[in-house]
Design a protein that fits this description.
Blueprint lengths: L7 H14 L12 H10 L5 H14 L3 H5 L3 H7 L6 H19 L7 H5 L6 H11 L9 H9 L8 H11 L5 H14 L18 H15 L1
Helix pairs in contact: 1-11, 2-8, 5-6, 9-10, 9-11
Length: 224
């Protein structure tokens, strides 16, 4: 397998432009503690951040600490988060994870990937998000927006989230990983959408491989 290579100057230009376009980039999830962030991220799988915030606005008024969730039966929590996709599985995982946090970690969310991924319902992306936001760890969560935009912008040639993560960890300076992660998400939501991307409004148009390949494709079809 060939290792992805990117021009350092071009990468720096892309990152600097992204930072200028989204100077206040941060997570859209609302939370009051590291534990609440973990719960919100677990709820966000196959659910929009807006819907998660709508659910947690009421949920965290009733239950805010690991002890609160640990005392619930999963069916109780399921009724509270029914507006969220896969709510039954999420309810089981959140309750069980809360019990582990109480019993094993003194109700504190651990900072290590190994400990986080050992919690029910916490995979690599969820662990990376918590580590990135709560602990400022040099990690790169890869969701659908990061996957799409980083490939289009030539920051990665990976065909899987794991490969894209490896590429981004190589080309993005460690102290900019958090910023770049949120910038790529915002760019994917606002401009570089999966369908009908707003290329005419993009401040990265001159650097975008997606636009260049599209133009080449149109010219080829016209010539034929």
């Amino acid at each position: 397998m060939n290792k992805f290579e990117a021009d350092a100057g071009r990468v720096r230009e892309v990152l600097d432009r992204l930072a200028g376009m989204y100077p206040d980039a941060r997570t859209a999830l609302k939370y009051g503690s590291t534990f609440q962030l973990l719960v919100a991220v677990m709820l966000s799988a196959q659910c929009t951040d807006r819907q998660v915030n709508k659910i947690t606005a009421e949920l965290f008024k009733k239950y805010s600490r690991p002890e609160d969730f640990a005392a619930l039966e999963w069916e109780d929590l399921a009724r509270e988060i029914k507006g969220c996709g896969l709510y039954r599985n999420k309810s089981r995982n959140i309750v069980n994870a809360s019990r582990i946090l109480v019993e094993k970690y003194g109700s504190r969310v651990p900072a290590s990937r190994e400990a986080l991924e050992a919690l029910p319902g916490v995979g690599r992306k969820t662990a990376n998000v918590v580590m990135n936001i709560a602990f400022n760890s040099p990690v790169m969560p890869v969701d659908t927006h990061v996957f799409r935009t980083s490939r289009r912008l030539g920051l990665s040639g990976g065909r899987t989230p794991a490969a894209v993560e490896r590429d981004l960890l190589r080309v993005v300076p460690p102290d900019r990983l958090g910023q770049v992660h949120h910038c790529l998400i915002l760019h994917g939501r606002k401009v570089c959408r999966a369908r009908n991307p707003r290329c005419g409004e993009c401040g990265l148009a001159g650097l975008c491989l997606h636009i260049k390949s599209s133009v080449v494709g149109r010219r080829t079809s016209e010539d034929i």
